[in-house]
Amino acid sequence: MDLFNDLYDCTENLLPKEGIVNYFGQIMTHEEANQYYKLLLNEIDWKNDQAVIFGKLIETKRKIAWYGDIPFAYTYSKVTKTALPWTKTLMQLKQLAELKTGETYNSCLLNLYHDGSEGMAWHSDGEKQLKRHGAIASLSFGAERKFAFKHKQTKEVVALNLASGSLLVMKGTTQDNWLHRLPPTKKVGNPRVNLTFRTIDLDQ
Ligand SMILES: O=C(O)CCC(=O)C(=O)O
Ligand SMILES: [Fe+2]
């Protein structure tokens, strides 16, 4: 695993300008990643995501869950969700993400993509309730999927594959200047679980 991880320099900024994205590669063994994947699939209170699109309430096939230090209300795609208390597994993963990235987090949004037909459209995670320029740590489990960034003005694109058991961090002004997405793909038939650890600003 160490040999493999030497291929990634987690201090290298993947963005050419106006934001910072670091990819740490796989931060655990395949066995550990597989264990976490199964635990997360079973333990998490997965719900179909709801969103208001053109004024209509729709349910996505992708499932989500929202956990945090306290029952924060978080408005995402115009629907408000209340954070559930951390599970033991999520607490372990939060500590791992904090140790690796040198940042702290107080909440986590989880996404379950059943197969490659499910993805997430271009967006940035700049919600008002999030700490301005706070780091967002992304842990992935299960199927490897492509993840892409697009500069809001120049439309430059940067893409990479997120492996099972891998960690990526977005920080600085990334959310101001770049969109990101998880493109749908016909090549993937297995589920993927993604965790994004975030910091809700309690003064907002
Ligand atoms: O699934 C991913 O890798 C990204 C999810 C994401 O961008 C989000 O939850 O805001
Ligand atoms: Fe996002």
Descriptive notes:
The strands form three sheets. Strands 1, 2, 3, 6, 7, 9, 12 and 14 form an eight-stranded mixed β-sheet that branches. A four-stranded antiparallel β-sheet has the order 8-13-10-11. The mean pLDDT is 93. The chain has helices at residues 2-5, 30-43, 88-101, 174-177; strands at residues 20-26, 47-53, 56-68, 73-76, 79-82, 84-85, 107-113, 120-123, 136-142, 145-151, 157-162, 166-171, 178-182, 192-198. A hairpin with a 2-residue loop joins strand 4 (73-76) and strand 5 (79-82). It has one domain: Sandwich (Jelly Rolls), CATH 2.60.120.590. Helix content is 18%, strand content 42%. 2-oxoglutaric acid is lined by residues 109, 111, 120, 125, 138, 147, 180, 182, 194, 196.
The average pLDDT is 93
Radius of gyration: 16 Å
The CATH architecture name reads Sandwich
- Biggest beta-sheet profile: 8 strands, mixed
- The unreliable regions are none
Bound molecules: 2-oxoglutaric acid, fe (ii) ion
Q: Shape, please?
A: globular
**Name of the CATH homologous superfamily:** Alpha-ketoglutarate-dependent dioxygenase AlkB-like
Provide the domain count.
1
What's the short story on this structure?
This protein has 204 residues and is α+β, with helices and mostly antiparallel strands. The chain has helices at 2-5, 30-43, 88-101, 174-177; strands at residues 20-26, 47-53, 56-68, 73-76, 79-82, 84-85, 107-113, 120-123, 136-142, 145-151, 157-162, 166-171, 178-182, 192-198. A hairpin with a 2-residue loop joins strand 4 (73-76) and strand 5 (79-82).
